[in-house]
Design brief:
alpha/beta; 5 domains; 27 helices; five-stranded parallel sheet; transcription; TPR-like_helical_dom_sf; 667 residues; 17 strands; Serine Threonine Protein Phosphatase 5, Tetratricopeptide repeat; Rossmann fold; four-stranded mixed sheet; Arc Repressor Mutant, subunit A
Length: 667
Amino acid sequence: MGPVTTVTSAETLHLNLLGPVEAHRGGTPVRLGGPKPRTVLAALLLARGRVVSDTRLTTLLWDDRPPATCPAQLHTYASRVRHLLGPGIAVERRRPGYLIRLPEQGVRVDLLEFQKRAARGTEALAAGDPATAARELRRALAIWRGAALGGVCDPLADAERDRLEEERLVNLERRIDADLELGRHSALIPELIALIAADPLREGLRGQLMTALYRSGRQADALAAYRAARATLADELGLEPSAELRRLHQALLTGHPSLLPRFPRDAAPEASASPPPAVAAAAQSPAAPVPRVVPPPAPATPSPGRADRHQAPAELPPAPADFTGRDQEVMRLGTALTGRRPRRPDQAVHVVTGMPGIGKTAAVLQTAHRVRRSYPDGQIHLDLRGSGPEPLEPADALGELLRLVGVPAPLVPAALDERIRAWRTRTADRRLLLVLDDAADERRLRPLLPVTDGCSVLITSRSGLYALEGVSRTVLTPLAPPESRTLFEKLAGRSRTGAEPASATALVDACAGLPLALRIVGSKVAARPQWTLSRHADRLTDPDRTLAELAFSDLSLRDRLMDAYRRLEPAARRALRFHSALGPNPVPAATAARALGTGTEEAEELLADLAAVHWAEVAGRHGEHAYRLHPLVRLFARGMLAEEEGAVPRVLPVRSSWALTRTGDTA
């Protein structure tokens, strides 16, 4: 929802999605009309400043039965929304659809307010401040007025309501986590019982109820709550409880000290029943760790009796001071890395992937610095050099890791198998955060992964590492236009961009949301204050010199792309080169096959392989698939086509009944 001119009226416009879709100006309802204009408004707001295609809007309004006059009706509904919301709100026609642009002041969207407060609460919880977390999350949840997207057409409700409800429930569980850490377990029991009655299959709530009952001195009731959860899951789904819930059940049986709450200095525990004797005894033990709600059963601080007493490694490079965007991705990763309950295997190892220059390392370092206090045994960063000509071999990587955890160089084993065993022994019962940057492939990575659930691993790779077992993946995509503009302004200077806004927009658009390109251009603008932005823009937007312009100091987009290009198989490189000659729109496999001189199935496989390593993006609708290239990748590939094929073929016509852009449907 990019900024436009500020609303002139002093009365704030409230746009509400978290309940019935409504608009209020200065407390007075805006008459939006029936479900269809509400659907158009909601769809545009949910797109956050991106274009919603005519195809998408048609589906949301009429499902698979659109009238013959649907283009005219779409225009009518968009015009009605523009008229009802008043001056300052831009509902614009941007082919292939429409977008909404909101001013920086004078408009409040309840969904955005909820997400901002929820993010602050989540960060406070990860930072060990449950009081602030509980307060912010409670305020966020109070914004909801009922089931989201009330009064819209069914296709939009079906597509978005479950996602929004899941977001609410996740933050509700986080608020309950914060209250549990504050010792409010007795007060939570009635609320949790009611929540479980409404959503009996949500295991997170079941686990929180078990914890609250146990801390209230009701061990038998906590065990009964587990049996009830197990019976419900078996009856409804034919499944056993998750490994997380089973571990919690085992902790209840053994009175594990991790079940104790951790009270901040400014918070007092409830005056409730005493904990079970096993818990009380554990609390008096000087060896008991500082517990959280239900963390992995590993000591929270290094044991002073270890033979390898040395300063814990703190190897993280600094996170970029001008880091911009990626709020949702960093928040999700941070939450998984600081989980208060026993983790699933895929909550311990996280792969962050995406095309060259997309900002994988920056996002991982931003996350690592936010959560480092949760890993008191140290934080290690290791560059695996996977995109270079000589990736780090596992034996060499393990030698460096063993040195970092205190093994003297003469005592590092020589054989790879022995180094693997030594590494696993040294990381057992530790709380280590391991950042493995620029991994090449699964073979080189597997020996480096700790097996203890107290350690966590953040991995960056241009490959998705899909053969790696038990990991979660975060795929980074280009920044949205508002985030791109913000990053560029941080680098180039707000006064420069404000003086030439049109040229600044042209520079940002030419970078197509790629953080490395934005960083290069912003740094170059800052280094050449005597040049106007229009001069920079003229040079950058000339396709014959765009890639040459995207180089500054030790940063070069072409070099970064070339490193990745050389790692592709010859057939994949050829497919990439010829794809670049087929125009900017998504290319179906059949069209690519004609250009490559192959069968459709072989072309589909080559394009799918390119998508798996983020050279191409998959777009699809109604079971069809096509593949598009990022604009800067396409420029690079066209250059390689001319260099390696001797000439650039005439662009082939790409005809399809469903033209797709980045704002259309993607798979």
